[in-house]
Amino acid sequence: MQGFQQYFVAKIIDVSPHVTMKDEYRAPPAQPVEQAFGGGAVRLVGVKPKEELRGIKNGLAKVAELERLQGVAVAPMLTGQVILRYGSRDVSAQIQGIEPARERRVSNLERDMTAGALDDLFTTANGVILGAGLAEKLGAEPGDSVTALSTAGVVLKMKVVGLYATGITEMDNAQGYALLKKVQVLEDRPNVINRVRLKLAEVDGAEPLARRIEARYGYRTESWEEANQNVLGIFVIQNAIMYSTTGAILVVAAFGIFNIISTVVLEKVRDIAILKSLGFESRDVERIFVVEGLLVGLAGMLLGWALGWLLIELLAQVRFTIEGFVKSEGFKLDRGFLNYALAGAAAVTAATLAAYLPARRAARVDPPSPGGSPDPCAAAKPAAGPLLRAERVTRVLSGPQAGAVPVTLVEEVDLTIGRGEFVAITGPSGSGKSSLLYLLGLLDRPSRGEVYLDGQPTCGLSDARRARLRLEKLGFVFQFHFLLPEFDALRNVTLPLRKLGRLSAAEVDARGRQLLAELGLEASAGKTPDQLS
C-alpha cells in the first residue's frame, strides 16, 4: 500500500507542475447588484450576473515577473475543450497550448514521448501531440490528420506528430498538446493564457509559494498537493486503516507474550525463590524476565524481517497491469529500511512492555512481610556477640493467606549460634521449623523480635540490603528438587559466586570444581539435576 502511495506521489511530482495559477477566483467576485445594495435588507431575484472574459490578465507579464523568482521555472498555457474527430470516431479531449522551450523546464513531456519529438510542433503546421490512451481511442497514429472542433466553433485540421505516456491515466487518455499560438487560434482567444505553471527546485515549498502568488495576483493558485487532495485524502484513510490493523495485531501479539511469560513465572516460582535465597535482589529477578521478553521480541523481529523480505520478493515477481489513478505494472512495493525499522521497534517495544508485568510479579515472589502496626524492628540497635542470634522472634501469618483467624507460625523464639557451631533444629511436621529457617536466613521478616547477623540487626534493612547479606554471609543447602533444572551441577554450585562478582569466571569455575571434588562429584560437574542420583 505504501509502495503504491509513494509511486503515485513521485509520478505526480515528476510529470505535473508543482504550482498552477488558474484564471479563476477562490471566492466568486461580488456582482454589481451586491455592491450597490450590499447593506440593504433587500433580496433581489432573477438578476443576471455580470459575465467576465476568462483568462489571466496581462498573463505574459506575470510570467516574466514570476521567472525572476529564485529556483522557479515558469511556463504559460492555454487549455480548452475540443472534439477530436478521426474517421467516424469523435472523442472529447482537452487541448493544451504550450511554448516548448518553457515547457521543457516545468514538465517531462519530452522524456515521456513514445513517438515523435517535442520540436516537431515547430516543423509541422498545426501539429498536435496526443496521449497514448487518447490516440488509441481515436485509432490515430503519428502522421495521421485529425479534426479539432473547439467550443468557440473553430474547426482546425491538425496532424499527429507524436505520442506520450506519463503513466497518469487522466493525462494519457484525455489530453493533447499543441503550440500556444495554435490553441489561441482554435479557441478564438488571441494573446490569452489561462494557466501559469511553475516547477520548483524544492518541491516542499510548493504550498507556501502558491499562497503567496494567490495573495499577490488574486487568481486561484494550487500546489500539487491541493490539486490532488482527493487522492491524498484516500491515502490518509488507507494509512489509518493499515496502522489500526497493525496495531491490533501487535496488541494480540503482546498479550500472547504476556501469557507465555506469566506461565513461565508460575512454573519458575520455586526457582525464583532459590535465586532470592542465594542473594538475588527483586530487581535482578525482574530484569531476567524483562530481558526474556526483549529476547522474544528480538527473535520475532528477525523472523518478521526475513518473512517480510521473502514475501516482498515473491510479490515483486507477480506481473499484471492495472489502470486507476495511475497505470501500474505489478505491485509497487516499498523496500525502504524504515518500514523494517519501525516494525522491528514496535515488535520489540510491545514484547518488552508485555513482559514487564509478569516480571514485576516474579520480583515479588518472596515470603510476605508482616503488615499492620509500626515496624517492630525500628528500635533495634547493633549488638556485639554471636554470629547469629534470634531474640523473641515471632511470626504471625495474617490477611488473605491465613483466612479470618491469624496463625502463629513461630512464637517467642530465642536462639544463639556461635562461630563454628553446628545446630540442628528438630520437631514434628508443622511445628515451624521451615518458618524459623526462613526468618534466620533473612528470607522473611518477623512480626516481632529481631534477628542479628554478625551483631547487626536485620529486620529493618531494605530488601536489597538483606539480599546482599544473604549473598555475602549466608549459604543454603538444598535438596535435589530445589536445584535449578536448567543449570548443571557446576553452575548450581557456583551461582552465588558468579552473582557476587568478586572472582573471574575462570576462578569461579575452579572453585566450583574444587568443591565438587571434595564431595567426589567432580565427574558430575556437567550433569543436570535430573541426571544426578
UniProtKB/TrEMBL annotation:
Its main location: membrane. SUPFAM superfamilies: P-loop containing nucleoside triphosphate hydrolases. It is a multi-pass membrane protein. It is found in: Cell inner membrane. InterPro entries: AAA+_ATPase, ABC3_permease_C, ABC_transporter-like_ATP-bd, Lipoprotein-release_system, MacB_PCD, P-loop_NTPase. Pfam families: ABC_tran, FtsX, MacB_PCD. One of its GO terms (biological process) is lipoprotein localization to outer membrane. GO terms for molecular function: ATP binding; ATP hydrolysis activity. The chain crosses the membrane at residues 240-266, 287-312, 337-357. This is LolD protein. It comes from Symbiodinium pilosum (Dinoflagellate). The gene is lolD.
